[in-house]
Amino acid sequence: MDEIQDEIHEECGVFGVYSQENRDVAYTVYYGLYALQHRGQESAGIAVAYADKITYYKGMGLVPEVFSGGNLEKLPEGDIAIGHVRYSTTGASQLLNAQPVVFTGKCGKMALAHNGNLTNTKQLRDEMIAENAVFQTTIDSEVMAVAINSMSDGDILKGVMRACPRFKGSYALVIMTADKLIAVRDPYGIRPLCIGTIVDDYVVASETCALDAVGANFLRDVKPGEIVVIDSQGIHSHMMENLPEKSRMCIFEYVYFARHDSIMDGCSVYEARKEAGRLLAKYYPVEADLVSGVPDSANVAARGYAEESGIPFVEALAKNRYVGRTFIQPDQRQRENSLSVKMNALRANIDGKRLIIIDDSIVRGTTMRKIIKMLRNAGAKEVHIRICSPIIKHPCHLGIDIQTYSQLIGAYKNEDQICQSLGADSVRYLSVDQLVQTCSSANVGFCLGCFNGQYPYPLEGYEADKLKLE
Protein backbone atom coordinates (compact mmCIF):
# COMPACT_ATOMS: atom_id res chain seq x y z
CA MET A 1 0.00 0.00 0.00
CA ASP A 2 1.05 3.58 -0.57
CA GLU A 3 2.02 5.74 2.34
CA ILE A 4 -0.85 7.81 3.67
CA GLN A 5 -0.88 11.40 2.44
CA ASP A 6 -4.08 12.66 4.07
CA GLU A 7 -4.10 14.99 7.02
CA ILE A 8 -6.27 16.42 9.81
CA HIS A 9 -8.42 13.28 10.27
CA GLU A 10 -8.04 12.11 13.82
CA GLU A 11 -9.18 9.86 16.63
CA CYS A 12 -8.60 11.56 19.96
CA GLY A 13 -9.51 11.63 23.61
CA VAL A 14 -11.00 14.54 25.60
CA PHE A 15 -11.35 15.14 29.31
CA GLY A 16 -12.67 17.93 31.49
CA VAL A 17 -13.26 18.67 35.17
CA TYR A 18 -15.32 21.27 37.02
CA SER A 19 -14.48 21.66 40.70
CA GLN A 20 -16.40 23.50 43.40
CA GLU A 21 -13.13 24.87 44.74
CA ASN A 22 -9.69 25.86 43.56
CA ARG A 23 -7.43 22.84 43.61
CA ASP A 24 -4.92 20.92 41.51
CA VAL A 25 -7.42 20.20 38.71
CA ALA A 26 -4.55 19.80 36.21
CA TYR A 27 -3.55 16.60 38.01
CA THR A 28 -7.08 15.23 37.66
CA VAL A 29 -6.95 15.90 33.93
CA TYR A 30 -3.46 14.40 33.71
CA TYR A 31 -4.62 11.06 35.13
CA GLY A 32 -7.74 11.17 32.97
CA LEU A 33 -5.63 11.68 29.84
CA TYR A 34 -3.29 8.90 30.94
CA ALA A 35 -6.29 6.54 30.92
CA LEU A 36 -7.20 7.80 27.43
CA GLN A 37 -3.66 7.45 26.05
CA HIS A 38 -4.78 4.66 23.71
CA ARG A 39 -6.90 7.21 21.82
CA GLY A 40 -3.95 9.39 20.83
CA GLN A 41 -0.20 9.14 21.20
CA GLU A 42 1.18 12.09 19.23
CA SER A 43 0.38 15.10 21.38
CA ALA A 44 -1.25 16.04 24.65
CA GLY A 45 -2.37 19.25 26.31
CA ILE A 46 -4.06 20.63 29.42
CA ALA A 47 -5.69 24.05 29.94
CA VAL A 48 -6.64 25.39 33.40
CA ALA A 49 -9.05 28.20 34.31
CA TYR A 50 -8.18 30.32 37.36
CA ALA A 51 -8.89 33.92 38.45
CA ASP A 52 -10.69 34.77 35.18
CA LYS A 53 -7.68 33.54 33.22
CA ILE A 54 -6.79 30.40 31.27
CA THR A 55 -3.28 29.02 31.07
CA TYR A 56 -2.19 25.88 29.25
CA TYR A 57 0.63 23.59 28.32
CA LYS A 58 0.76 21.19 25.38
CA GLY A 59 3.45 19.26 23.57
CA MET A 60 4.30 16.39 21.26
CA GLY A 61 4.50 12.86 22.66
CA LEU A 62 2.85 10.69 25.27
CA VAL A 63 1.13 12.21 28.30
CA PRO A 64 3.96 11.43 30.78
CA GLU A 65 6.53 12.73 28.28
CA VAL A 66 4.72 16.01 27.62
CA PHE A 67 4.20 16.73 31.32
CA SER A 68 7.60 15.58 32.59
CA GLY A 69 10.30 17.89 33.88
CA GLY A 70 7.96 19.95 36.01
CA ASN A 71 5.60 20.94 33.17
CA LEU A 72 2.56 19.68 35.06
CA GLU A 73 3.59 21.43 38.26
CA LYS A 74 3.81 24.74 36.37
CA LEU A 75 0.07 24.72 35.74
CA PRO A 76 -1.75 26.65 38.49
CA GLU A 77 -4.49 25.48 40.77
CA GLY A 78 -7.95 26.31 39.44
CA ASP A 79 -11.56 25.21 39.37
CA ILE A 80 -11.94 24.12 35.71
CA ALA A 81 -9.58 22.29 33.38
CA ILE A 82 -9.77 20.40 30.10
CA GLY A 83 -7.32 18.13 28.31
CA HIS A 84 -6.74 16.37 25.02
CA VAL A 85 -4.72 13.50 23.56
CA ARG A 86 -4.37 13.35 19.80
CA TYR A 87 -3.14 11.29 16.94
CA SER A 88 -2.87 12.58 13.40
CA THR A 89 -2.06 11.34 9.94
CA THR A 90 0.84 12.60 7.79
CA GLY A 91 1.15 16.37 7.49
CA ALA A 92 -0.69 17.29 10.67
CA SER A 93 1.70 15.89 13.27
CA GLN A 94 3.06 19.15 14.69
CA LEU A 95 2.86 21.17 17.89
CA LEU A 96 0.91 23.91 16.12
CA ASN A 97 -2.05 21.54 15.81
CA ALA A 98 -1.95 20.15 19.36
CA GLN A 99 -5.00 20.83 21.51
CA PRO A 100 -6.73 22.32 23.47
CA VAL A 101 -7.27 25.36 21.24
CA VAL A 102 -6.97 28.42 23.53
CA PHE A 103 -7.70 32.06 22.67
CA THR A 104 -9.41 35.25 23.82
CA GLY A 105 -12.72 36.20 22.18
CA LYS A 106 -16.16 37.60 22.78
CA CYS A 107 -16.62 35.36 25.82
CA GLY A 108 -13.22 36.25 27.23
CA LYS A 109 -10.74 33.43 27.60
CA MET A 110 -11.90 30.18 25.98
CA ALA A 111 -10.44 26.70 25.38
CA LEU A 112 -11.78 23.83 23.27
CA ALA A 113 -10.80 20.19 22.80
CA HIS A 114 -12.35 18.02 20.09
CA ASN A 115 -12.59 14.34 19.23
CA GLY A 116 -13.89 13.69 15.74
CA ASN A 117 -13.71 15.10 12.24
CA LEU A 118 -15.82 17.64 10.38
CA THR A 119 -16.66 17.08 6.72
CA ASN A 120 -17.35 20.73 5.87
CA THR A 121 -14.24 22.30 7.40
CA LYS A 122 -13.07 23.98 4.18
CA GLN A 123 -16.46 25.56 3.55
CA LEU A 124 -16.66 26.91 7.09
CA ARG A 125 -13.08 28.14 7.06
CA ASP A 126 -13.50 29.91 3.70
CA GLU A 127 -16.71 31.60 4.87
CA MET A 128 -15.07 32.88 8.05
CA ILE A 129 -11.89 34.02 6.25
CA ALA A 130 -14.14 36.04 3.93
CA GLU A 131 -15.44 37.71 7.12
CA ASN A 132 -11.83 38.52 8.18
CA ALA A 133 -11.29 35.57 10.54
CA VAL A 134 -7.66 34.55 11.07
CA PHE A 135 -6.56 30.94 11.67
CA GLN A 136 -3.34 29.79 13.29
CA THR A 137 -3.67 26.02 12.73
CA THR A 138 -4.84 23.56 10.07
CA ILE A 139 -7.27 21.66 12.32
CA ASP A 140 -11.06 21.65 12.20
CA SER A 141 -11.14 22.14 15.98
CA GLU A 142 -9.97 25.74 15.59
CA VAL A 143 -12.66 26.30 12.97
CA MET A 144 -15.24 25.13 15.51
CA ALA A 145 -13.82 27.36 18.24
CA VAL A 146 -13.79 30.45 15.99
CA ALA A 147 -17.34 29.74 14.79
CA ILE A 148 -18.65 29.36 18.35
CA ASN A 149 -16.92 32.56 19.43
CA SER A 150 -18.10 34.62 16.45
CA MET A 151 -21.74 33.57 16.95
CA SER A 152 -21.78 33.92 20.74
CA ASP A 153 -22.50 37.64 21.26
CA GLY A 154 -20.61 37.19 24.50
CA ASP A 155 -22.77 34.23 25.62
CA ILE A 156 -20.89 30.95 25.18
CA LEU A 157 -24.05 28.81 25.30
CA LYS A 158 -25.64 30.94 22.60
CA GLY A 159 -22.52 30.52 20.48
CA VAL A 160 -22.60 26.73 20.85
CA MET A 161 -26.34 26.54 20.11
CA ARG A 162 -25.94 28.69 16.98
CA ALA A 163 -22.73 27.17 15.63
CA CYS A 164 -23.32 23.45 16.13
CA PRO A 165 -26.07 23.16 13.48
CA ARG A 166 -23.46 24.34 10.96
CA PHE A 167 -21.01 21.56 11.83
CA LYS A 168 -21.25 18.47 9.64
CA GLY A 169 -19.41 15.39 10.83
CA SER A 170 -18.41 13.85 14.14
CA TYR A 171 -17.59 15.80 17.26
CA ALA A 172 -17.38 15.27 20.98
CA LEU A 173 -16.34 18.58 22.53
CA VAL A 174 -15.22 19.87 25.88
CA ILE A 175 -15.26 23.67 26.02
CA MET A 176 -14.05 25.84 28.87
CA THR A 177 -14.49 29.50 29.72
CA ALA A 178 -13.40 31.21 32.92
CA ASP A 179 -16.55 30.02 34.69
CA LYS A 180 -18.12 27.19 32.68
CA LEU A 181 -17.38 23.68 31.46
CA ILE A 182 -19.44 22.61 28.44
CA ALA A 183 -19.72 19.13 26.90
CA VAL A 184 -21.21 18.67 23.42
CA ARG A 185 -21.94 15.55 21.38
CA ASP A 186 -22.87 15.72 17.70
CA PRO A 187 -26.50 15.03 16.65
CA TYR A 188 -25.71 11.45 15.59
CA GLY A 189 -23.58 10.68 18.65
CA ILE A 190 -20.82 9.35 16.41
CA ARG A 191 -18.09 9.82 19.02
CA PRO A 192 -18.50 8.87 22.70
CA LEU A 193 -18.72 11.25 25.66
CA CYS A 194 -19.76 10.62 29.27
CA ILE A 195 -20.20 12.44 32.57
CA GLY A 196 -19.07 11.45 36.06
CA THR A 197 -18.95 12.93 39.56
CA ILE A 198 -16.34 13.14 42.29
CA VAL A 199 -18.39 14.17 45.34
CA ASP A 200 -19.66 17.62 44.19
CA ASP A 201 -17.27 17.92 41.23
CA TYR A 202 -18.14 16.96 37.65
CA VAL A 203 -15.94 15.13 35.15
CA VAL A 204 -16.45 14.73 31.39
CA ALA A 205 -14.50 12.13 29.40
CA SER A 206 -14.41 10.23 26.13
CA GLU A 207 -14.61 6.90 27.99
CA THR A 208 -15.68 5.60 31.39
CA CYS A 209 -12.21 4.13 31.96
CA ALA A 210 -10.98 7.72 32.43
CA LEU A 211 -13.67 8.31 35.06
CA ASP A 212 -12.44 5.22 36.91
CA ALA A 213 -8.85 6.48 36.74
CA VAL A 214 -9.70 9.63 38.71
CA GLY A 215 -12.10 7.98 41.16
CA ALA A 216 -15.24 9.42 39.57
CA ASN A 217 -18.62 7.72 39.60
CA PHE A 218 -20.32 7.32 36.25
CA LEU A 219 -23.38 9.57 36.01
CA ARG A 220 -24.52 9.11 32.41
CA ASP A 221 -23.55 9.40 28.76
CA VAL A 222 -23.95 12.71 26.98
CA LYS A 223 -26.87 12.19 24.61
CA PRO A 224 -26.49 12.64 20.86
CA GLY A 225 -27.22 16.29 20.10
CA GLU A 226 -26.93 17.31 23.75
CA ILE A 227 -25.15 20.38 25.13
CA VAL A 228 -24.30 20.01 28.84
CA VAL A 229 -23.37 23.18 30.74
CA ILE A 230 -21.68 22.88 34.15
CA ASP A 231 -21.21 26.01 36.25
CA SER A 232 -21.69 27.34 39.77
CA GLN A 233 -25.43 26.68 39.46
CA GLY A 234 -24.93 22.97 38.75
CA ILE A 235 -25.44 20.94 35.59
CA HIS A 236 -27.86 21.96 32.84
CA SER A 237 -28.89 20.15 29.68
CA HIS A 238 -29.87 21.68 26.33
CA MET A 239 -30.78 19.76 23.19
CA MET A 240 -30.06 20.85 19.65
CA GLU A 241 -33.05 21.32 17.37
CA ASN A 242 -34.08 19.12 14.42
CA LEU A 243 -32.20 16.05 15.62
CA PRO A 244 -32.13 12.94 13.39
CA GLU A 245 -34.53 10.14 14.24
CA LYS A 246 -31.71 7.65 14.80
CA SER A 247 -28.28 8.03 16.38
CA ARG A 248 -25.22 6.62 14.59
CA MET A 249 -22.48 5.82 17.08
CA CYS A 250 -19.26 4.61 15.42
CA ILE A 251 -19.33 0.86 16.00
CA PHE A 252 -15.54 0.79 15.59
CA GLU A 253 -15.36 2.19 19.11
CA TYR A 254 -16.47 -1.25 20.35
CA VAL A 255 -14.35 -3.16 17.83
CA TYR A 256 -11.04 -1.40 18.38
CA PHE A 257 -10.78 2.17 19.65
CA ALA A 258 -12.15 1.99 23.17
CA ARG A 259 -10.41 0.38 26.10
CA HIS A 260 -12.06 -2.93 26.89
CA ASP A 261 -12.93 -1.86 30.45
CA SER A 262 -15.07 1.05 29.23
CA ILE A 263 -18.85 1.08 28.98
CA MET A 264 -20.33 3.14 26.15
CA ASP A 265 -23.97 4.03 25.76
CA GLY A 266 -25.03 1.14 27.96
CA CYS A 267 -22.83 -1.50 26.33
CA SER A 268 -19.72 -3.05 27.88
CA VAL A 269 -16.84 -3.00 25.41
CA TYR A 270 -15.48 -6.15 27.06
CA GLU A 271 -18.73 -8.06 26.62
CA ALA A 272 -19.12 -6.86 23.03
CA ARG A 273 -15.66 -8.12 22.12
CA LYS A 274 -16.13 -11.41 23.93
CA GLU A 275 -19.43 -11.95 22.13
CA ALA A 276 -17.67 -11.28 18.82
CA GLY A 277 -15.32 -14.16 19.60
CA ARG A 278 -18.22 -16.43 20.52
CA LEU A 279 -20.01 -15.64 17.26
CA LEU A 280 -16.88 -16.31 15.23
CA ALA A 281 -16.57 -19.74 16.85
CA LYS A 282 -20.26 -20.46 16.32
CA TYR A 283 -20.51 -19.45 12.68
CA TYR A 284 -16.95 -19.93 11.38
CA PRO A 285 -15.47 -22.98 13.16
CA VAL A 286 -12.28 -24.70 12.07
CA GLU A 287 -10.28 -27.61 13.46
CA ALA A 288 -7.23 -26.33 15.27
CA ASP A 289 -4.96 -26.93 18.28
CA LEU A 290 -5.13 -23.49 19.87
CA VAL A 291 -6.73 -20.08 19.57
CA SER A 292 -4.96 -16.82 20.24
CA GLY A 293 -5.52 -13.10 19.80
CA VAL A 294 -3.43 -10.37 18.27
CA PRO A 295 -2.56 -8.39 21.42
CA ASP A 296 -4.07 -6.48 22.99
CA SER A 297 -7.48 -5.50 21.60
CA ALA A 298 -8.28 -8.98 20.22
CA ASN A 299 -7.40 -11.01 23.31
CA VAL A 300 -10.87 -10.68 24.84
CA ALA A 301 -12.49 -11.93 21.63
CA ALA A 302 -9.99 -14.78 21.43
CA ARG A 303 -11.03 -15.92 24.91
CA GLY A 304 -14.66 -15.79 23.78
CA TYR A 305 -13.79 -17.96 20.80
CA ALA A 306 -11.93 -20.41 23.05
CA GLU A 307 -14.84 -20.70 25.48
CA GLU A 308 -17.39 -21.27 22.71
CA SER A 309 -15.27 -23.73 20.70
CA GLY A 310 -13.55 -25.62 23.51
CA ILE A 311 -10.19 -25.03 21.80
CA PRO A 312 -7.65 -23.83 24.39
CA PHE A 313 -6.56 -20.21 24.48
CA VAL A 314 -2.77 -20.05 24.26
CA GLU A 315 -0.62 -16.98 23.67
CA ALA A 316 0.93 -17.13 20.22
CA LEU A 317 2.36 -13.62 20.13
CA ALA A 318 4.40 -11.76 22.75
CA LYS A 319 4.00 -7.99 22.75
CA ASN A 320 6.56 -5.33 23.57
CA ARG A 321 4.55 -3.11 25.94
CA TYR A 322 6.68 -0.07 25.20
CA VAL A 323 5.78 0.28 21.53
CA GLY A 324 2.65 2.18 20.51
CA ARG A 325 -0.26 0.81 18.51
CA THR A 326 0.67 0.30 14.86
CA PHE A 327 -2.72 1.57 13.68
CA ILE A 328 -2.05 5.04 15.06
CA GLN A 329 1.43 5.72 13.77
CA PRO A 330 1.45 8.80 11.53
CA ASP A 331 2.49 7.08 8.31
CA GLN A 332 2.68 3.69 6.68
CA ARG A 333 6.47 3.38 6.88
CA GLN A 334 6.45 3.90 10.65
CA ARG A 335 3.61 1.35 11.00
CA GLU A 336 5.55 -1.33 9.17
CA ASN A 337 8.88 -0.66 10.87
CA SER A 338 7.37 -0.69 14.34
CA LEU A 339 5.82 -4.15 13.93
CA SER A 340 9.17 -5.95 13.98
CA VAL A 341 9.88 -4.62 17.46
CA LYS A 342 6.28 -4.60 18.65
CA MET A 343 5.63 -8.34 18.81
CA ASN A 344 7.26 -11.71 18.39
CA ALA A 345 5.98 -15.25 17.93
CA LEU A 346 6.14 -17.66 20.89
CA ARG A 347 7.79 -20.61 19.18
CA ALA A 348 7.44 -22.91 22.19
CA ASN A 349 3.66 -22.52 22.09
CA ILE A 350 3.01 -22.78 18.36
CA ASP A 351 5.65 -25.00 16.78
CA GLY A 352 3.85 -27.72 14.81
CA LYS A 353 0.41 -26.44 15.85
CA ARG A 354 -2.70 -25.43 13.90
CA LEU A 355 -3.54 -21.88 14.97
CA ILE A 356 -6.67 -19.77 15.01
CA ILE A 357 -5.67 -16.13 15.23
CA ILE A 358 -8.34 -13.60 16.20
CA ASP A 359 -8.01 -9.92 15.29
CA ASP A 360 -10.38 -6.99 15.51
CA SER A 361 -10.08 -5.89 11.87
CA ILE A 362 -7.95 -5.91 8.74
CA VAL A 363 -7.49 -2.48 7.22
CA ARG A 364 -4.58 -2.48 4.81
CA GLY A 365 -3.41 -6.06 5.35
CA THR A 366 0.27 -5.23 5.79
CA THR A 367 0.35 -5.96 9.52
CA MET A 368 -1.57 -9.24 9.31
CA ARG A 369 0.56 -10.43 6.41
CA LYS A 370 3.70 -9.94 8.50
CA ILE A 371 2.12 -11.63 11.53
CA ILE A 372 1.20 -14.71 9.51
CA LYS A 373 4.72 -14.91 8.09
CA MET A 374 6.14 -14.52 11.60
CA LEU A 375 3.97 -17.38 12.90
CA ARG A 376 4.90 -19.71 10.03
CA ASN A 377 8.59 -18.94 10.53
CA ALA A 378 8.13 -19.96 14.17
CA GLY A 379 6.78 -23.37 13.12
CA ALA A 380 3.01 -22.90 12.89
CA LYS A 381 1.50 -25.73 10.83
CA GLU A 382 -1.67 -23.84 9.86
CA VAL A 383 -2.81 -20.25 10.44
CA HIS A 384 -6.54 -19.53 10.30
CA ILE A 385 -7.60 -15.90 10.68
CA ARG A 386 -10.92 -14.86 12.24
CA ILE A 387 -11.89 -11.17 12.24
CA CYS A 388 -14.27 -9.54 14.76
CA SER A 389 -15.74 -7.14 12.19
CA PRO A 390 -16.91 -7.26 8.58
CA ILE A 391 -14.66 -6.52 5.61
CA ILE A 392 -13.85 -2.80 5.59
CA LYS A 393 -14.88 -1.83 2.07
CA HIS A 394 -15.22 1.96 2.30
CA PRO A 395 -13.20 4.89 3.69
CA CYS A 396 -14.10 6.79 6.83
CA HIS A 397 -14.37 10.58 6.79
CA LEU A 398 -15.63 10.82 10.36
CA GLY A 399 -12.47 10.35 12.40
CA ILE A 400 -10.53 7.20 11.41
CA ASP A 401 -7.32 7.37 9.36
CA ILE A 402 -8.71 5.50 6.35
CA GLN A 403 -9.78 8.24 3.94
CA THR A 404 -9.24 6.57 0.56
CA TYR A 405 -10.22 3.29 -1.03
CA SER A 406 -6.58 2.66 -2.00
CA GLN A 407 -5.76 2.13 1.70
CA LEU A 408 -8.27 -0.73 2.06
CA ILE A 409 -7.54 -4.29 1.06
CA GLY A 410 -11.26 -5.02 1.32
CA ALA A 411 -12.18 -2.33 -1.21
CA TYR A 412 -11.04 -4.48 -4.10
CA LYS A 413 -10.65 -8.03 -2.75
CA ASN A 414 -13.23 -10.53 -1.48
CA GLU A 415 -12.71 -12.89 1.44
CA ASP A 416 -10.95 -15.60 -0.60
CA GLN A 417 -8.71 -13.07 -2.35
CA ILE A 418 -7.78 -11.50 0.97
CA CYS A 419 -6.90 -14.94 2.32
CA GLN A 420 -4.62 -15.59 -0.63
CA SER A 421 -3.03 -12.15 -0.36
CA LEU A 422 -2.28 -12.61 3.34
CA GLY A 423 -0.95 -16.14 2.99
CA ALA A 424 -3.41 -17.60 5.51
CA ASP A 425 -5.02 -21.03 5.43
CA SER A 426 -8.44 -19.44 5.85
CA VAL A 427 -9.93 -16.02 6.63
CA ARG A 428 -13.45 -15.39 7.90
CA TYR A 429 -15.16 -12.19 9.02
CA LEU A 430 -18.24 -11.41 11.07
CA SER A 431 -21.14 -10.11 9.00
CA VAL A 432 -22.59 -6.65 9.60
CA ASP A 433 -25.63 -8.16 11.35
CA GLN A 434 -23.43 -10.31 13.56
CA LEU A 435 -21.30 -7.32 14.55
CA VAL A 436 -24.38 -5.30 15.47
CA GLN A 437 -25.55 -8.29 17.52
CA THR A 438 -22.40 -8.04 19.67
CA CYS A 439 -23.56 -4.57 20.78
CA SER A 440 -27.20 -5.48 21.34
CA SER A 441 -27.23 -3.92 24.83
CA ALA A 442 -26.30 -0.46 23.51
CA ASN A 443 -29.00 2.20 23.62
CA VAL A 444 -27.86 3.86 20.38
CA GLY A 445 -27.83 3.09 16.67
CA PHE A 446 -24.59 2.64 14.77
CA CYS A 447 -22.63 4.10 11.88
CA LEU A 448 -21.60 1.19 9.65
CA GLY A 449 -20.38 3.25 6.72
CA CYS A 450 -16.93 1.69 6.46
CA PHE A 451 -18.61 -1.70 6.03
CA ASN A 452 -21.72 -0.94 3.95
CA GLY A 453 -21.16 2.56 2.57
CA GLN A 454 -24.16 4.02 4.44
CA TYR A 455 -23.00 7.15 6.28
CA PRO A 456 -24.86 9.73 8.35
CA TYR A 457 -23.14 12.39 6.20
CA PRO A 458 -22.43 12.06 2.45
CA LEU A 459 -19.09 10.58 1.42
CA GLU A 460 -17.73 12.68 -1.42
CA GLY A 461 -14.60 12.58 -3.54
CA TYR A 462 -13.69 8.90 -3.19
CA GLU A 463 -15.47 7.09 -6.02
CA ALA A 464 -12.82 8.03 -8.59
CA ASP A 465 -10.14 6.67 -6.31
CA LYS A 466 -12.02 3.36 -6.09
CA LEU A 467 -12.39 3.11 -9.86
CA LYS A 468 -8.63 3.33 -10.30
CA LEU A 469 -8.33 0.05 -8.42
CA GLU A 470 -10.80 -1.89 -10.54
UniProtKB/TrEMBL annotation:
GO terms for molecular function: 4 iron, 4 sulfur cluster binding; amidophosphoribosyltransferase activity; magnesium ion binding. It comes from the Bacteria. SUPFAM superfamilies: N-terminal nucleophile aminohydrolases (Ntn hydrolases), PRTase-like. Binds 1 Mg(2+) ion per subunit. Residues 12-233 form the Glutamine amidotransferase type-2 domain. The keyword Signal does not apply. It holds the Pfam family GATase_7. Pathway: Purine metabolism; IMP biosynthesis via de novo pathway; N(1)-(5-phospho-D-ribosyl)glycinamide from 5-phospho-alpha-D-ribose 1-diphosphate: step 1/2. Its cofactor is Mg(2+); [4Fe-4S] cluster. It is an enzyme of class 2 (transferase). GO terms for biological process: 'de novo' IMP biosynthetic process; purine nucleobase biosynthetic process. [4Fe-4S] cluster binds at C250, C396, C447, C450. The active site is at C12. It catalyses: 5-phospho-beta-D-ribosylamine + L-glutamate + diphosphate = 5-phospho-alpha-D-ribose 1-diphosphate + L-glutamine + H2O. Gene3D superfamilies: 3.40.50.2020, Glutamine Phosphoribosylpyrophosphate, subunit 1, domain 1. InterPro entries: GATase_2_dom, Ntn_hydrolases_N, PRTase-like, PRTase_dom, PurF, PurF_N. Mg(2+) binds at S297, D359, D360. In the C-terminal section; belongs to the purine/pyrimidine phosphoribosyltransferase family. Catalyzes the formation of phosphoribosylamine from phosphoribosylpyrophosphate (PRPP) and glutamine. This is Amidophosphoribosyltransferase.
